[in-house]
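Anyone? Bumping this.
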Amino acid sequence: MTGGDSLDIRPIGVIRTPFESVAGIPVQPLSGKGIRGKIILREEYAEGLKDLDGFSHATLIYHLHRAAAPALRVVPFMDDEEHGIFATRSPRRPNRIGISTVRILKVDKNEIEIEDLDMIDGTPLLDIKPFFPEFDNRHGGRAGWLEKRKGENKEGCRSDDRFTGE
Amino acid sequence: MTGGDSLDIRPIGVIRTPFESVAGIPVQPLSGKGIRGKIILREEYAEGLKDLDGFSHATLIYHLHRAAAPALRVVPFMDDEEHGIFATRSPRRPNRIGISTVRILKVDKNEIEIEDLDMIDGTPLLDIKPFFPEFDNRHGGRAGWLEKRKGENKEGCRSDDRFTGE
């Protein structure tokens, strides 16, 4: 395998949220329950939103544009031990791609009201996929180092500044 | 919002699967149950795999490199009506980004044996995220046009050639 060229991937819109700095953001949508914001899609893509409002949830794919430089080993927010970046959700990943499954409240032309947010204001959006529980849920598996945090209340769980690029 | 520049996103590896042509591929990992393949990560990222083997599932983010040109309205494999691209999982999306949650069988240096596959052989990999059911599952929501397919057996569900770029 040789060094790959950069792919032609461009923002299709922007995610507006109440979070203006990298520290203090919910670590996952579960921790950001009830927090609202919106997607402003580029107008030329508005037609692609038809029937999205039939889904209660969608998975957003976005660019972690303010993450610190990539690292292969990190200590994630929810642990005090180091893990490989691909065994964590830390933003310091190659390609800085983030995913979050959020609640869809309302679709109006090129704007979508969303809830349960864990991303910073101004995040560049790359894709929107409808969530289908039958396809997307997984049950009864193992969750590695996160097993020990199972069942804890994570609603107040917030980031600190360890992964900021500023 | 002005036209966004292309982001610096490059393949971190490749996904090897038994599927050599775009037609006949499982439409989702659920339909590709038991189908095995592997990830060959670029060697310089191998260190980032530490502790991934503790997870039974991971969500792969990849480039739908052989998809047809993007379209804003499509008739998806699982329906006979047209929907907005962002209300479907069709590969004809802007940015051609795909996601699939697969089973992790074994991690060995820069190679990962995986199962429940629905992507074509040679797919460029962009990211690997550990799956944590407590964060990633969603229950009791609405699934739009897919509601009517709920509970059906989808294990044999395969693509045809409508989205091929060839």
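Late reply, but here is one note on the structure posted above: The beta strands of chain B are 13-16, 36-41, 57-63, 73-74, 83-84, 97-108, 111-115, 123-130.
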